Amino acid sequence: MSTTFRPLKLGMVGGGRGAFIGAVHRMAARLDGKYEIVAGCFSSDPEVSRESARDIGIADERAYSSWQEMLDGEAGRPDGDRIDAVSIVTPNHMHYPVARGAIEAGFHVICDKPLVHTSAEADELVKLVDERGVVFGVTHNYTGYPMVRQARQLVQDGAVGTIRKIIVEYNQGWLARRAELEGNKQAAWRSDPKLSGPAGAMGDIGSHAENLVESITGLEIESLCADVSTLVPGRALDDDANVLLRFAGGARGVLIASQISTGAENDLRIRIFGDAGALTWHQEEPNSLYYTPIDKPQQVYRRGNPYLHSVATRIERIPFGHPEGFIEAFANLYGDIGEHIRAAKEGRKADAAAEFPTVRDGARGVRFIETVLKSGSSSEKWIPL
Length: 385
Ligand SMILES: NC(=O)c1ccc[n+]([C@@H]2O[C@H](COP(=O)([O-])OP(=O)(O)OC[C@H]3O[C@@H](n4cnc5c(N)ncnc54)[C@H](O)[C@@H]3O)[C@@H](O)[C@H]2O)c1
Fold this sequence. Notes:
- It is a single chain.
- 35% of the residues lie in helices and 22% in strands.
- The chain has twelve helices and 14 strands.
- Helix 1 links the parallel strand 1 (8-14) and strand 2 (35-41).
- The chain is globular and about 65 Å long.
- Nicotinamide-adenine-dinucleotide (NAD) binds at residues 13-16, 19-22, 41-44, 67, 89-92, 94, 112-113, 139, 141, 185-186, 189, 204.
């Protein structure tokens, strides 16, 4: 018997006028018609929250003045009308209280990164998610690219053999000046430890790099040795870090997270070297994946081609040669998280192919950030993760 499809109902916290990632989440959620955004607290300023809600067609009665009011108001609505999930797109300091409140109210959660400020908070969320049985996705969106999933499949299929070395770089240049003093809202909170958390660049983009490495290779970082710097004078948090990695099983690696690299835009790239071959993927050219078998010419896998594995083809929308990118990758995570939410609501097992970074992956990212900071400020050379 088929059931009538209805889009999942989403309430958003953050993402008001002038915000960056909230609008991306909304486009991603709506891209395939699997969600509708019906409620939100879009700003800590109630008037801005209301105006932002009107901009995107949310009824005044569901434009809330605070996130607590949203959770209470939505919990009080009838089943089928209330939100199914909460999307958290605020600066980092609000992730923990909102996520906690949403889980306790029984809502599924989609939260941006870094998950929270401390591993104690992260562990608390993991425990609560287990207790309440809600779905909790963390938008490490780079794992939503078809060619990243293809890369992981190639690793699993043995195409690179035993991994020996991994180099992951995340370089940006937008904080080469003190943009936080020049009215750049995104720079302002990212440079403030109360709002950003204990880390700057390492939390903001290093956490994505860590997630990408572990997701593609399946290898866990076992220990690390970090050089963490604030290279722009006066800034309170790190803006550049170089980290040596040792992986369980013996592979070695290097992770760079830098926001002072002038000229770099969103330059996330990963290179994986094994005893049978190598893989390279670059976020700014996401539809290509480079594979070099040892002693053979390089091959280029291109998104949209029938030779790709189903892990990649199942999340494509348009034929090859028509670029897909950042928003589609986000939408792929929304789609896979949505499949798990729908399965939970219907009391069935989710499609095994639907995957996304979970609260545990988010917690691992927080532990990684803490370990990098600890190593960076310690005379001890290697610190276990
Ligand atoms: N996954 C990614 O690629 C990616 C990219 C950018 C940002 N992010 C993450 O997304 C989050 C937001 O980043 P951003 O760059 O969009 O920030 P932003 O400053 O552009 O937007 C933050 C929004 O949250 C709102 N807000 C702040 N406090 C609030 C509260 N108490 N209640 C309701 N709304 C509140 C602000 O008014 C604003 O609208 C951060 O955690 C960041 O790390 C992730």
